[in-house]
Write a structure and sequence with these properties.
The chain is of the alpha/beta class. The protein is built from ten helices and eleven strands. Strands 3, 4, 5, 6, 9, 10 and 11 form a seven-stranded mixed β-sheet that branches. Strands 1-2 form a two-stranded antiparallel sheet. Helix 2 packs across helix 3. The chain is globular.
Length: 295
């Protein structure tokens, strides 16, 4: 019962209201309120300031929240450890995928996975790579397959599966598309459309352009690389995309000396047990990496 009260507390924090938490947990709002009151009584502290229809964490609530998340993760970890004793690859697999990896790298892997492991129930959430890292840290997901952070996340273990070279692209009608020779400095005269400035991919772009003194000030940003490809294709700005995303509407610019590459792969928490379902997916991803190395 105490675990369920802690789960109610964390869910209210994540959802922002008692009613939203009740909907998420398929409970009534009075049940959520009762569980939280019980938890506050046990802890001897109020965890929420009830203000109108909203809720705000008290100082005690803010202090307790990371410990509550960790407690729930430990409980889930124990359940996975017991399930693994059966040596059966079955049950849920909570997996986070970045949009690009999910669309362009994972379909064949997932097709083979569900064919080989029909008793596994994948629960896939599509998230930005940065949010996916947070989901693994919190224990909401066992694995994430994403653009790996640069530098590496200090609290997670990563397995690089694919190298992902990147290039600068413009639409066919862009002034630079027909230029005989383009230098990196030439880009400064034109607007760019790029990933958000707080994204892992943007950090890679900044690091690549830094030595050339090019200041990036994107006109528009989007986490969705397909959106950036469209924006560049219609002439709104130059962009940086995985080289594999070459498109008939785009011209790839040859820029001497510029090298950009992302690392795509899996991340997991080093102190939490993986389910047999997660281990099986990692094994398939490792096979993908080996196939790439030996190709």
């Amino acid at each position: 019962m105490q675990t369920e009260a802690i789960r109610a507390f964390v869910t209210v924090c994540d959802q922002g209201s008692f009613q939203a938490a009740a909907d998420t947990l398929h409970l009534s709002q009075p049940t959520i309120s009762k569980r939280l009151a019980s938890l506050e009584s046990r802890l001897g502290h109020e965890l929420f300031d009830r203000v109108g229809r909203g809720v705000a964490l008290t100082e005690a609530g803010r202090a307790y929240l990371p410990h509550a998340r960790e407690l729930l993760a430990v409980v889930q970890d124990g359940r996975r450890a017991l399930d693994n004793l059966h040596a059966e690859t079955a049950g849920p697999l909570r997996l986070a995928l970045s949009h690009h990896v999910g669309l362009h790298r994972m379909p064949e892997v997932l097709r083979a996975y569900v064919a080989h492991h029909p008793n596994v129930t994948p629960e896939i959430v599509f998230q930005d790579s940065e949010a996916a890292c947070r989901s693994v840290v919190k224990g909401d997901c066992e694995l994430a397959v994403i653009t790996l952070p640069t530098p590496s996340h200090p609290g997670l273990v990563e397995d690089c599966i694919w190298d992902d070279p990147m290039s600068v692209f413009v639409g066919h009608d862009h002034a630079l598309a027909s230029a005989r020779r383009v230098e990196i400095a030439d880009l400064a005269a034109y607007p760019a459309v790029l990933p958000p400035v707080d994204s892992y991919t943007y950090a890679i772009i900044v690091a690549a352009f830094g030595p050339y003194g090019l200041t990036l000030a994107p006109r528009m940003t989007s986490h969705y690389l397909e959106t950036l490809r469209m924006l560049a294709g219609v002439g709104i700005g130059w962009t940086v995309l995985p080289t594999s995303m070459q498109h008939p509407e785009l011209t790839r610019l040859e820029l001497p000396g510029l090298h950009m590459e992302r690392r795509l792969g899996a991340i997991r928490h080093p102190r939490r047990s993986l389910s047999n379902a997660a281990r099986a997916l990692l094994a398939m991803l490792d096979a993908q990496r080996e196939a790439g190395v030996n190709a």
